[in-house]
């Protein structure tokens, strides 16, 4: 009676047995989070869609390695998204033909015409560039802990780190990010440190 | 906020592609079932498992089960090769067409939506020659075409039906009871106890026994593995009550297989398609998860 336990774990197991609709459900469930994360990393709408698509395709291609953490496939998916975003050229090459074959609506309006949009795009790009200064390991941590509010313990588990190593990495990564966003950290001391969630979520 | 949403056209196409990709790896047995269930959310009490039809029929009145009401007399025709069976006008209130196909010779038989079944020589004349499902009704649909391999003979019984998921009932203590269905799980879940009696088990009892409750406390894969180890080989006995939730009528047993050793018999259906050999450093995705249950859910749920 597997249907009692609903959630990612069940859907993932059903996907592994070849039930496409279960994978479709996983896609519906996590699409937006993955897309937003991709956008954060590249700051560009079109590329984000490619990264998102490649991430789900990678999730499936590397299915034998996937681990479900805290009953969710999302941490794994986000790590994959980060990897894909970092290796965009390579990932895009693998799925280029497929990505090109997917239809897209025409962009209805010109982004540069709207001053608010232009400003937003600038901010998005700034953040994407700041994130680009992090090492891949640190970026993975920041993505899971800061953006997606996973516990350090969960992030450490999926990244094969000990919780204490993850904690000190987080600390260094935050300093590095701050420098990249604000200039010198010494002259701009942080006033409100990024909250880091520890312990169980409600 | 700016245009932070995925292009729907792109997303839909991607989703369809993913669903197809995943479907490709289905082993032949799983494929047969998976395909047949596709698009038939309102599955009647018929399944590919022998004997299930009878079970469901006996529990016709279980709240929350799918109630199938025939709306016209069934049409039965026998053909050889590809042919179309006319069903006549669809009656008012029809929501689907219930189909039962028996193969009379070995061959491959395909329904219009791509669902298909293959009969081997040893299936003919046995229970295995039977395939059934409910096709959702589309406007103007008044015939069924079966496409077959050359010279394959078949018998189709089809009839217009109305399928409806009934509501769960509420007992005097305020607990909902009935069959699990696409709306979820009631407080008291309809099951058939090991002594053959039908009754209800508390959802919370089932969740404690099958690991759903424990899984909520896991903080890492290590926790999950430790838990799996701790319960390996153990059996959990869940009491089965009548609809009041107070009088015990039997028990429902949930046991744990011993993971990859295979000594527990067939692998869990959800592990089908998982390669039996693993590369270095890989972990088997299904150990400990192959729950074996004695007794059975009262209404077949095509979840796996």
Question: In terms of topology, how is this protein built?
Answer:
The complex is a heterodimer of chains A (202) and B (304).
Chain A: H1 8-16, H2 20-42, H3 45-61, H4 74-86, H5 88-101, H6 115-132, H7 136-147, H8 152-158, H9 163-182
Helix pairs in contact in A: 1-2, 2-3, 2-4, 2-6, 3-4, 3-5, 4-5, 4-7, 6-9, 7-9, 8-9
Chain B: H1 8-24, H2 28-37, H3 52-58, E1 66-70, E2 75-80, E3 83-86, E4 96-103, E5 107-110, E6 116-119, E7 130-136, E8 143-148, E9 153-165, E10 169-170, E11 176-178, E12 188-192, E13 198-202, H4 203-210, H5 212-215, H6 221-231, E14 235-241, E15 248-256, E16 291-294, E17 296-297
Parallel strand pairs in B: 11-12
Antiparallel strand pairs in B: 1-9, 2-9, 3-8, 4-7, 4-9, 5-6, 5-8, 10-11, 12-13, 12-17, 14-15, 15-16
Features of this protein?
heterodimer; A: 202 residues; mainly alpha; 9 helices; 66% helix; disordered N terminus; B: 304 residues; alpha+beta; five-stranded antiparallel β-sheet; five-stranded mixed β-sheet; 6 helices; 19% helix; disordered C terminus
CA-based gyration radius of chain B: 22 Å
Rg of chain A, Å, rounded: 18 Å
Fraction of residues in H or I helices of chain B: 10-25%
Shape of chain B: extended
* H-E order of chain A: HHHHHHHHH
Given as residue ranges, the uncertain stretches of chain A (5+ residues, pLDDT < 50) are 1-5, 184-197
Indicate the mean pLDDT of chain A.
78
Mind describing the biggest β-sheet of chain B?
A: 5 strands, antiparallel
Described by the principal axes of the CA atoms, the overall outline of chain A is globular
DSSP summary: helix tally of chain B = 6
Question: What letter string, H or E per element, gives the SSE order of chain B?
Answer: HHHEEEEEEEEEEEEEHHHEEEE
Write up this protein.
The complex is a heterodimer of chains A (202) and B (304). By secondary structure, chain A is mainly alpha-helical. Chain A has 9 helices and no strands. The two termini of chain A are 27 Å apart. The longest helix of chain B is centred in the N-terminal third of the chain and has 17 residues, at 8-24. Helix content of chain B is 19%, strand content 31%. The radius of gyration of chain B is 22 Å and the shape is extended. Chain B starts with 7 loop residues before the first helix and ends in a 7-residue tail after the last strand. Chain B is of the alpha+beta class and 304 residues long. Chain B is built from 6 helices and 17 strands. Classes of the chains: A mainly alpha (202), B alpha+beta (304). Chains A and B meet through helix 1, helix 2, helix 3, helix 6 and helix 8 of A and helix 1, helix 2, helix 4 and strand 17 of B.
């Amino acid at each position: 009676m597997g249907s009692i336990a609903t959630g990612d774990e069940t859907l993932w197991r059903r996907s592994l047995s070849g039930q496409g609709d279960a994978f479709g459900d996983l896609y519906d469930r996590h699409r937006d989070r993955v897309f937003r994360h991709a956008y954060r990393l590249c700051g560009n709408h079109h590329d984000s869609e490619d990264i998102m698509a490649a991430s789900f395709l990678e999730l499936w291609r590397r299915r034998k390695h996937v681990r479900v953490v805290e009953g969710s496939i999302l941490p794994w998916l986000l790590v994959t998204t980060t990897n894909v975003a970092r290796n965009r050229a390579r990932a895009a090459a693998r799925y280029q033909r497929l990505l090109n074959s997917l239809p897209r609506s025409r962009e209805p309006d010109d982004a540069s015409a709207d001053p608010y949009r232009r400003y937003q795009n600038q901010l998005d790009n700034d953040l994407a560039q700041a994130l680009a200064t992090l090492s891949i390991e640190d970026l993975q941590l920041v993505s899971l802990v800061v953006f997606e509010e996973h516990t350090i313990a969960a992030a450490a588990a999926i990244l094969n780190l000990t919780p204490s190593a993850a904690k000190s990495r987080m600390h260094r990564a935050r300093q590095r990010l701050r420098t990249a966003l604000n200039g010198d950290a010494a002259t701009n001391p942080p006033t409100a440190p990024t909250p880091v969630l520890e312990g169980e979520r409600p | 906020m700016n245009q932070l949403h995925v292009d729907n056209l792109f997303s839909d196409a991607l989703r369809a592609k993913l669903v197809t990709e995943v479907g490709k790896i289905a082993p032949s047995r799983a494929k047969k079932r998976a395909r047949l269930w596709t698009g038939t959310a309102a599955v009647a009490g018929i399944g590919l498992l022998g004997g299930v039809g009878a079970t469901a029929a006996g529990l016709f009145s279980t709240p929350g089960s799918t109630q199938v009401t025939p709306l016209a007399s069934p049409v039965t025709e026998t053909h050889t090769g590809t042919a179309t069976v006319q069903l006549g006008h669809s009656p008012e209130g029809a929501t689907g067409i219930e189909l039962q196909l028996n193969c009379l010779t070995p061959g491959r038989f395909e329904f219009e939506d791509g669902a298909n079944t293959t009969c081997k020589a040893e299936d003919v004349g046995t229970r295995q020659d039977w395939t059934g499902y409910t096709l959702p009704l589309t406007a103007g649909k008044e015939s069924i075409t079966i496409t077959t391999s050359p010279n394959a003979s078949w018998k189709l019984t089809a009839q217009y039906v109305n399928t409806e998921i009934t509501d769960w009932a509420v007992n005097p203590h305020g607990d909902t009871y009935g069959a699990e269905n696409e709306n979820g799980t009631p407080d008291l879940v309809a099951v058939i106890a090991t002594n053959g009696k039908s009754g209800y088990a508390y959802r919370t009892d089932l969740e404690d026994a099958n690991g759903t409750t424990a899984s909520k406390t896991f903080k890492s894969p290590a926790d999950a593995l430790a838990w799996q180890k701790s319960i390996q080989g153990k059996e959990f006995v869940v009491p089965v009550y009548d609809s009041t939730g107070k009088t015990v009528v039997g028990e429902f047993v949930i046991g744990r297989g011993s993971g990859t050793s295979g000594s527990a018999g067939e692998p869990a259906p959800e592990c089908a398609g998982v390669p039996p050999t693993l590369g270095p450093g890989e972990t088997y995705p299904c150990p400990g998860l192959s729950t074996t249950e004695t007794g059975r859910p009262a209404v077949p749920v095509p979840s796996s």
